[in-house]
Structures are given as C-alpha cells and as structure tokens.
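Appendix C. Worked example: Glycine--tRNA ligase beta subunit
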Amino acid sequence: MATQDFLVELGTEELPPKALKPLSDAFTQGIVKGLEEAGVEFGRVEAFAAPRRLAVRIRDLADAQPDKPVEKRGPAVKAAFDDAGNPTRALTGFATSLGITPDQLDTLETDKGAWLVYRTVEQGKPTVELMPELVEKSLAALPIPKRMRWGAHKTEFVRPVHWLILLFGNKVIDTSVMNLKPGNKTRGHRFHCPKELIVPTPADYEVVLKQEGYVLADFAERREQIRQGVAQLAEKEANGKAVIDEDLLDEVTALNEWPVPLMGRFEERFLDVPAEALISSMKEHQKYFHVVDASENMLPLFITVANLESKDPAQVISGNEKVIRPRLSDAAFFYETDRKTKLEDRIEALKPIVFQDKLGSLYDKSVRVAALAKKIAEAINSDPALAERAAMLAKTDLVTEMVLEFTDLQGIMGQYYASNDGEHADVAKALNEQYMPRFAGDDLPTTLTGCAVAIADRIDSLVGLFGINQPPSGTRDPFALRRASLGVLRIIIERQLPLDLQTVCEWAEQNFTVLTEQNTASTVVDYMLERFRAHYDEHGIGAEVYLAVHARRPTRPLDFDRRVKAVEAFRQLPEALALAGANKRVSNILTKQGGDSIGETVDNALLQDAAEKTLAAKVEEQAQKVLPLFEQGDYASALTSLASLREPVDTFFDDVMVMADDEAVRNNRLALLNRLRNLFLRVADISLLPTAS
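Step 2, the predicted output written as structure tokens:
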C-alpha cells in the first residue's frame, strides 16, 4: 500500500502557557488513537507545539484503510428453503437486507448444522476521507475546562482559531475542520514574520517555520535551546549558575516562539530580603530565572527570555528591570513591615479566620494541634514544650503581608520571622517543616519538633473532617487528606518514629467537642492504612503482600513497613509458595472446625504418627527461636527461619489425617495446626500470598 506523510496544523491566538504541552499531547494521542481504531497503518508520530499553533505530523501514513473481509451469517439451510426447495421469507428477507440475491450466498458447515452466509470484502476508505473527522474528534476531546466563542462563530475552542493546514503528501485535504478551510499556508512569528508561508510538504514544516518564519515549532527543541541559552548566559556574563525550575522552563517554552535569553540586574539592597521572596516575585509574576554564585548565594541578577531578537536588547533589558524593581520593592517593604510585629502577637488574628465551619477557626485548630504535638513530641523523645510552642505559632505567618501577597511562601516566611523574633531554632524550623512533605518525593522535616507539628497538623485535619462526616469522596478531596495521610506515613517510616496511629488519632479525637461520627479514630486509621497500598505499589511491592500484612491491621506504620518488607523478602524464597498454600489449607480447616475457639496447646502424649511428632517438635523449636525475633520487630529473620517448616508441613499433610475419628487426637492435631498458623500470623496472613498450583 502506498504511503505519504501527513500534517495537520491548527493556528490560534496565544494558547494558555501551562496548558500548551498537555493540549499538544492530547491532540497527538487523539489522532493516533483514531488511526489505530480505523486500522490505518502509519510510521513515526511527531508533535509540534508553540504559542500560536498545535501540529502533528504522521510519517508514512497509508493512503487507505486495508480491505476487510466481512462474513454475515443468515438463516439455517433448513429454515431457508421450503419442502419444494423455494426460498422462504427468512432467506429472502436476509438477502434483501444486504441488497443481494439468494444465489450470492455461500453455505457454512458447523457442528450444529449448515447455515447460509454472505461473504464479501469491505473496501477500506481512503485516508484523505478519514483524516478531517479524526482531527475534528481529537480537537473536540481535548482537556479544555472552559471553551470560548469569538465573533459570530459557533465554533468553540480554548482560544480563537485562524488557520488550518491539512496536508497528505503535497496535496491539501479540502474538507473543513472547525469551520476553517484547510490550506498549505502557515504563519510566521507575529513580529519577525507577520505573513503567510507556504508549506510544500509535511516534511518541510518545521524547516519553513524556522528558516523563514522565526518560529521553533518543536516544543522539546525550543525547551532545550532555552535551557542551554539561559545556562550559558549566566556563566558567561556573571560566572554564575542559572537556577532552572523545570515547571518554569515549560511555561517559558510555551510563551515563546523565538526565544532569546537576556540578563538584567536589580539593586543589591534587595538581597537583604529572603531569597525565597525574591525568587517567588521573579518566577511567579515575571517568569524570570534567578542566578546564584558558586556557593549557591543569590546574585542581583535575573534572566528573562524575550520572544524576539531586538535590535536594541539593552532597551528590552531596561524595560524588564523597570518592571521587576517595584515588585522587589514591595517584597522588601512587606518584609520590613512584618518584622515589626512578633508572630506571638499575631495569634489573636487567627480567631476570625475560619478553618472549617464546624471545626472552628485557625486559632481553634492551632490550640488543638499544639496539644496533640505536645503528646507526639513526648512519644518520640522530643521536647514537648518546643512542639507546643511551634504549633501555636505555626499558622501566624498566614496573616503577614508577605504571605498574603505570596501565598507559596507560607511556612518559609514563618521560619524567617520566628528567627527574627528570637524563637528557638527548632521552633523556627518547624514553622516551615510543618508543611513537609509538600508533594510526593518532597523532603521531610529534619527536626523532631518539625515532625511532631507536621504529624499533628495532618492528623487533626483527618480526625476532624472524618468526625463530621466529610471524608474525601471520588476525586473530591478539598482538604488534601489523601496527601496528608501519605505525608504522615512517610514521616513516621522514614524518620523511624515509634508512633501508633490508633493512639495518636485517639489523642486527636479527645481535642474535639463537635464530632458526630462514632469510632472516628478507628475509621481514620483504616483510611490511612489503605493509603499504604498505593505507597507500596509505587515501590514495586505487589498488592498481595500489602493485603497479607493489612489483614493483621498493625497500626504502627514503622511496624507495618517492616512486616511488608519481611513478607516481600519471604515471598522470594523457594519455600514461600508451598507454605502459603499450606497456610491457606490450614486456615480453611480451622475455619470449618470452629476458628477462634480452637486453642494451640499441643499434648505430646496424643501425637501418634511420626510426621505429626516431627512437625510438633519443629514448630516448638521454631517458636523458641522466632518469638524473641518478633518482640524485636525482626520479622525478616523470623520468616526466613519459619521457611524451614516447609518439609515437615508437606510431610504432615501427605501422611496424617487431620480429621481423625478420635476426637481428642483430632483436636490435638487442630491445635498443632493452629500453633503453626499463629506463628506466621505474628507477621502477616501469608495464606493471602500466591500459592503453588
């Protein structure tokens, strides 16, 4: 089948920068999905995305769908003809529905008799007929929260659309999409090349735009050019290093078609302001990259990326310097003003600020968190007074001028202001660390005071919101309780804290007087333990391992984690499959015979067969060996040791009839099996692991 390259480009007004890459990815995936569903063969797929265009090029696209054999079964031969051999109504109706005569049908022999069938070949549609609809469908399915209309058009899109290229080889596919008549003309840079440019073939697309139109259409190429240009400029002009935030780099890439990095300066006096405030001002409002020296100290420099090559770049730089100066002046003013009032004196200002209607104000939350943090600090051998103090001050920076202007600085400015007030170093640090981890993979608190406040703040929210029956539901999680749960688990595990979730949640529950739900602490613990499943899945540990441990409901996260890792190691042993199967068998037997009512005291005098005597001796031997290991939390060593029971367990089931006629012998054997199973249950229910077939 013949192939040609295909190109679609949709020209628009400037697209939202944060949405450009997701829109491009979705547009490309939509077209690919359409081609796959249509069965059209194609080669390499290339996406292009710039501020005023979305484009996709498909290499080696087949010129038509492949022909498809079609077989439609009609009536049975017996029902198709009457006794005289004439077609029945069933046969004529079937033939008429297909637009054929009965003599065009074939016979299909099956084990249930003979049937009439119609066989034909459905010719594939030409690609030029398929592509406009595929493009239209892909555009309609883009993740656009709110579409807009413009002019007198009924067409809707994220921004007004102005031109469209639909090329198959060197031919224009002349079918409208989004009420645009396709052509082979694109448009260059808004200032450098404000005119139409002909794209002869799909292969010429990015070359024409780059060489004639001053547009780098390839998002990845443009992104890398900006990265290199910014880094080289910082090194060349200031012997410094540009700090390139990946999200900011993506945004700047989406803002520029022809990026030109330029370096500007600001007064050194602004360096007295915390670097985070300066960075936030430059990054969020102006999309500037900041520059540091070899010691990571901030320099009074910034790098902006202009969307054109200016004949007088000094003018562009000067303009940017004039824009950033008042913003930095505001930051300096806020910082100076805020330091005149101590954080302690701002506590009262939290009273009018509602945390949640039923759970009170931020002040109420601070009081609860302080009481909880104090108990947590005692439990982890930290200073309770410091944790209580930090928790009371934790939200006070929310009412400072700086954080009201730059909300992403909450916690960070609290640490600066607490240090300025002369607070203990751990208290100051905790004001920032209370928010850690802010996202998956983020740093954890480094101080125990910070750990205590971070855990207390999250647990208070969890218990409070569950207690008034406002847990997360579906995708709705306005208080980010899922993230809060994972944050608590990470802090406890990675900082090796000896905390019991049940105890901590009960402490938190005692601080509330407005909770309406019963057993809130236990409900929250169950919810948090469920979050472990995704946590371990990300670390490549299967759900069956998580479920085996979860069945025992250990409520100390550090203990839960040790069990999971021990079971995962045990699962790799050659004995694991057989022992999991044996445990499943034992579990089923015990459940049928009374479950919890069965004891585990074995009377050696009632042991009859050699296999059960051997197993009893081995179980007793293992009990003496592993029980101290369980007490130490050394589950891995304990399970490795218990793996040696595989052979005596297998022999027992091969040679011994558990359900003996003699009731005393039968009950003794059940007790032996229960004792065996309970050893494993000290870690997990390994009967939930995969078993040997």
